[in-house]
Every structure is written in C-alpha cells, then in structure tokens.
C-alpha cells in the first residue's frame, strides 16, 4: 500500500529504534513520560493514531491536527472496580480529555454511545470500525469431553468468581461438563481458592497463545462475565474456534452475540441465569453442536483483513 508505519512505545532498555515485521518501532521514555514524547514526535508525521488503551489519552492532536484517537473502551465506570477513589478520580478526569479530539474511532456502537454520554465526545467526531481477528490462527478443531472455558484477565470488572459460582450451581442442577479457568491478574488468589472448592473445575493460570488457541478449540462453551466490554475480542476468538459464548448482556456483547447463533446472553449479574443457560445448552446437544458451526460463520464478519482495509481507507483520507 506504500505506507510507512512507525510505532511509539516505552523504552525498556533495548534498541531505541528497530524494524519489526515491516514496522519501524520507536522507543522513548517510560510510563510517566511517554505522553510527552508523543507530543514532541507527533508533529513529524502525516497522520497519527493515538491508542487510548488505558484511559489517559496522548493528545497528539495538540501538535498534529491530523490525529485520530482509537478508544478501545470507555473506562469511566470500570475505574471504580479497579482503583481506589484517590487514583480513580484523576484517571477518570484525564479520560474525558478525549472530547478534545476531532476524530475518534471506536470498535462498537456501545463504545460510541459511552464516548458520547460519558466522555462528551461529539457524535460527528466518531467512526465505528469493528476490530477483527486473524482467522488463520483461530480455527475449529476436535472437541473431546464436554468442556466450559473462562479465559480472561483476572480483573474485578471481569467477574471471574461469577463464572465459577454459576458453574458450581449448574453442577448442582446436573451439569457434567468440566470447567477450565485460565488467565492471570489481581484476583489469582481468590480464583484459586474458589476453584479449589468447586468439583470439576481447574485453574491453569496464565497460558501461552498456543495453549489459548487449543483451549478455545476444545471448549464446547465459552464464558464471558465482564461488567463492560468495549469489544468482545475473546468472544470473537472463541467463535472463530467453533465455540459459542455464554455472556452477560453488556456493552458491545449486546450487538456481537446473537442468541442461538454464536452464543446466549443473560442479564448482568444473573449467576442463576448463567447456570440455567449452561444446563439448557448442554441438555440440547444437537443445538449446541449446530452453534459450533454458526459461531464460526458469524465470526467471519470480523476478519482482520476487513478491519485493516477500513482503517487504511479512513486514515488515507486524512493524509
């Protein structure tokens, strides 16, 4: 496409600049000074894409008017889960500076609504471009014994304990599938303890990318119990692996998951509803197996090549 891409990241002590897979990586500063470096470097580029992945925007638009903010999801309500009030307030305030961007890209309509309502971003500034996945890496495979998988970061807003409690309740109602919980994070001790009290459940801790792909292929059902999802990438990865998702009906999952096609939605916090849905899905094995195929088909709408083309066309119009 004739585009030169530079990627700014923190300097961890390695090479300050190098080429990686066709991308020129520039390393400057640390977690406290990277934002300053972005302001100094942004003016040298035709187009800048600020990745607002951790709430605090880079605001490269202050030195380069051809800047786009990529808001992965809005953190305003999540911060109360993850930070004490004295830390949450300044981060929540900083995130609202996203309203200073004249161009913002979000992955879902739910994130668009949150950006407008919670951050004050103007509707006309926002473009929705769904994130895609690499379908060559996530593929269906052989499924053995009945298996339910919860695989996310162990953060409070991800509610891993809800998944374990729902599974335990489903076991009481007759479910005979196993549960595997995987991922690392703040709640590892609590998760280990809860899994240890739950017959049929296993905690694997952090897993490699390849181990993740194997788990998603083997799973009969994938669980997502998040409080908010700007874009349910893990659900898409499960779907691409031929695995439907049982999710809380929140954020982007309301639009991403179609009941009976690539998963089932229940109301947020309804642990009993999760348990009943698990029982229903596993009792109707013919329908569950049908959803293995339709989940894969649904995921094809969100391929990385489609996403890349949309970003290219959008950014090219600014250069």
Automatic annotation (TrEMBL):
Domain of life: Archaea
Keyword Aminoacyl-tRNA synthetase: no
InterPro entries referenced in this protein's UniProt entry, alphabetically: Glyco_trans_1, Glyco_trans_4-like_N
Entry's Gene Ontology molecular function annotations: glycosyltransferase activity
Domain Glycosyltransferase subfamily 4-like N-terminal residue range list: 1-136
Glycosyl transferase family domain mapped to chain residues: 142-295
Annotated keywords: Transferase
Keyword Protein transport belongs to the record: no
Record-linked Pfam families: Glyco_transf_4, Glycos_transf_1
UniProt xrefs under PANTHER family: GLYCOSYLTRANSFERASE WBBK-RELATED
Protein name: Glycosyl transferase
UniProt source species: Sulfodiicoccus acidiphilus
